[in-house]
């Protein structure tokens, strides 16, 4: 065993006053650990969405009929509640795993040297979104799976994925001012694609709220809209996002854009095609639960890659000093004269 340092009364008091600062003074994580911690938080943000979808698709949304306890008399699910109670309670327990992943990301970011305040704030933003969504999840149960609260629950999870994606990206960058890799016209096209993607996800929650998978076997309120009409509108929006993505790839290719935006855009285009195929198959096969779950997972992956395309339009070279070297394709000037704009 290694040497265990003595902990004085002053050390204990300092740890109680500010445990994060106490840990940061005594531990400097490798940059790879920080990146992995941020990635773990992102993965868990996606997992909680997928398992939440499983709760709804198995009709277990009211498996625990109250909140914060599972029943009025029990904190956990009971044998009498059967499989639905176990599924709903299991999803609630995964919230603690998500909190642990986000907490690990916060500790790793706070302990990194030199201290990066922006990275730590992104970790804390995830924490407060998780706390808010946990409370909103309780409201969803207390109001009997009201579709509007279910939609808000999903959208807040989408916001969590967005913040986690940005933090993961920032762990691989420096803190210098961002330098654009494309011109203003290309950036505007990407922002249009991001806006269309947000609208696509929002309309998707309306499709869910009006559709047949209410989340419980009992009579659950649905959104008072025509499901066929809103589904077709969702499909139109999906084709708009696909078209914008293809147009972006064509423009980037035509102006000899840097490799990273081109690669991310190509990956997003393939993800959209796969997501669209799942969407059409589930529509024409009367929404089997497995395909609906796959479509929810695809929605998360699509959203992550939309953000990765957006974030690939600029670079923040790492400052000189200790740590891993910047890859050559990121350190060299990657902006062509035709899209760089004025300097």
Secondary structure elements and their pairing?
Layout (H helix, E strand, L loop, with lengths): L8 H9 L1 H8 L4 H27 L24 H30 L5 H26 L4 H24 L8 E2 L3 H27 L16 H28 L4 H26 L4 H23 L2 E2 L12 H4 L5 H4 L3
Helix pairs in contact: 1-2, 2-4, 3-4, 3-6, 3-10, 4-5, 5-6, 6-7, 6-10, 7-8, 7-10, 8-9, 9-10
Features of the shown structure:
343 residues, mainly alpha, two-stranded antiparallel ribbon, 69% helix, flat, disordered C terminus
Written overview of the protein:
By secondary structure, the chain is mainly α. 69% of the residues lie in helices and 1% in strands. The chain has helices at residues 9-17, 19-26, 31-57, 82-111, 117-142, 147-170, 184-210, 227-254, 259-284, 289-311, 328-331, 337-340, and strands at 179-180, 314-315. The chain has a two-stranded antiparallel ribbon. The longest helix has 30 residues, at 82-111.
Summarize the structure.
The protein is mainly alpha-helical. It has helices at residues 9-17, 19-26, 31-57, 82-111, 117-142, 147-170, 184-210, 227-254, 259-284, 289-311, 328-331, 337-340, and strands at residues 179-180, 314-315. It has a two-stranded antiparallel sheet.
Shape: flat
- Helical percentage: 55-70%
* Spatial sequence of strands, sheet with the most strands: 1-2
Largest sheet: 2 strands, antiparallel
Poorly predicted parts:
320-343
Count of DSSP H/I helices: 12
In percent, how much strand structure appears in the residues? under 5%
SSE order, one letter for each helix or strand: HHHHHHEHHHHEHH
Return the structural class: mainly alpha
Number of E strands = 2
Give the integer mean of the pLDDT values: 88
């Amino acid at each position: 065993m290694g040497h265990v340092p003595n902990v004085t009364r002053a050390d204990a008091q300092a740890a109680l006053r500010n445990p994060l600062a106490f840990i940061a003074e005594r531990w400097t994580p490798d940059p790879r650990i920080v990146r992995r911690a941020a990635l773990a938080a992102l993965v868990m943000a996606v997992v909680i969405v997928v398992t939440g979808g499983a709760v709804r698709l198995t009709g277990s949304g009211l498996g625990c009929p109250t909140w914060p306890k599972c029943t009025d008399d029990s904190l956990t699910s009971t044998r009498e509640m059967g499989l639905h109670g176990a599924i709903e309670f299991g999803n609630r327990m995964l919230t603690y795993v998500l909190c642990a992943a986000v907490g690990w990301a916060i500790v790793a970011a706070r302990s990194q040297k030199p201290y990066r305040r922006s990275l730590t704030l992104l970790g804390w933003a995830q924490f407060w979104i998780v706390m808010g969504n946990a409370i909103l999840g309780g409201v969803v149960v207390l109001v009997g799976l009201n579709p509007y609260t279910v939609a808000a629950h999903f959208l807040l999870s989408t916001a969590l994925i967005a913040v986690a994606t940005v933090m993961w990206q920032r762990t691989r960058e420096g803190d210098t001012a961002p330098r654009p890799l494309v011109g203003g016209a290309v950036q505007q096209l990407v922002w249009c694609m991001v806006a269309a993607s947000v609208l696509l996800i929002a309309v998707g929650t309306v499709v869910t709220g009006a559709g047949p998978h209410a989340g419980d076997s009992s009579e659950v309120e649905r959104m008072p809209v025509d499901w066929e009409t809103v589904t077709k509108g969702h499909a139109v929006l999906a084709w708009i996002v696909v078209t914008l993505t293809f147009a972006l790839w064509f423009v980037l290719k035509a102006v000899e854009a840097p490799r990273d935006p081109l690669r991310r855009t190509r990956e997003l285009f393939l993800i959209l095609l796969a997501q669209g195929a799942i969407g059409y198959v589930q529509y024409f096969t009367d929404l089997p639960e497995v395909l609906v779950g796959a479509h929810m997972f695809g929605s998360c992956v699509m959203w992550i890659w939309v953000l990765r395309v957006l974030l690939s339009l600029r670079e923040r070279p790492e400052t000189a000093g200790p740590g891993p070297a910047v890859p050559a394709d990121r350190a060299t000037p990657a902006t062509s004269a035709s899209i760089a704009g004025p300097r």
